[in-house]
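From the pipeline queue, job 12 of 40. The input is one protein chain; the requested action is below.

Action: predict structure.
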Amino acid sequence: MIERLRRTTLFAAYQAALALGIVTFPLALLTERAGMSLPVDTLVERLGEAHERAIDG
């Protein structure tokens, strides 16, 4: 039961991170022009990997 809750929570967090990445895309383009970057890609990658590990294990 707890493992199912963990997988569901990770999936929801992953989906929220994807939505955040889509919403902040215009801001990311502006910050890239200014020489900075937003770490949304790292967040999405880490949550995706955690979700895959939860499904596999």
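Job complete. Residues 2-56 form one domain.
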